[in-house]
Amino acid sequence: MIKKIILTMISSCSLVLTSQAELLPMSDEVLNEVSGQSGITLNAKVILGDESSIIFTNTSGKKKADATPAETGYLIVDELQGAIEFEGLGFDLVSDLKNSGKSALQWTLPKKVTATNLKTTGIYISSTEEVNSGVTSTFLMGMELNGELSLPANTQVSLFIVD
């Protein structure tokens, strides 16, 4: 058994030692013929535990440390559980969007979104990071999703800086 392992290691090393690779220079003409795709395309499935929550903080454009309580509000998706899967979500940085001279972040919506027992006990607007229904938090709605949502092909949203 040990002889076989040693022979395998020796033959592997001899293959590596006899192999060669070389980078060759390419002309500009050849490089101009190359095309590709930029950006990121994501296929993902997110599985959430029983006590998962999402808290979005709005500080009226200020840093959280600089915002007063009156300038701070929270959107809370409380006790989120289940799974959500998306296919074909794309992000790309586009220069000279539609000959506008402006760059943009182009977001391509996913082709398909699948929810499996995705539910929450409530979505709230709150003045604190904790849900305290009727005191600091206002209940907006509950949610339960099961099934598949197909979106039109290549639906794109472009975000670009105005100033």
Architecture overview:
- The protein is mainly β and 163 residues long.
- The chain has one domain.
- The protein contains two helices and six strands; from the N terminus they run ααββββββ.
- It has helices at 2-18, 28-32, and strands at 40-58, 73-94, 104-108, 112-126, 137-150, 156-159.
- Strands 1, 2, 3, 4, 5 and 6 form a six-stranded antiparallel β-sheet that branches.
- The model is unreliable at 13-19 (pLDDT under 50).
What is the CA-CA span between the terminal residues? 71 Å
Count helical runs. 2
* Element-by-element helix/strand order: HHEEEEEE
Low-pLDDT residue spans = 13-19
State Rg.
26 Å
Which secondary-structure class do the elements indicate? mainly beta
Largest sheet: 6 strands, antiparallel
Q: Determine the mean pLDDT.
A: 79
Basic shape: extended
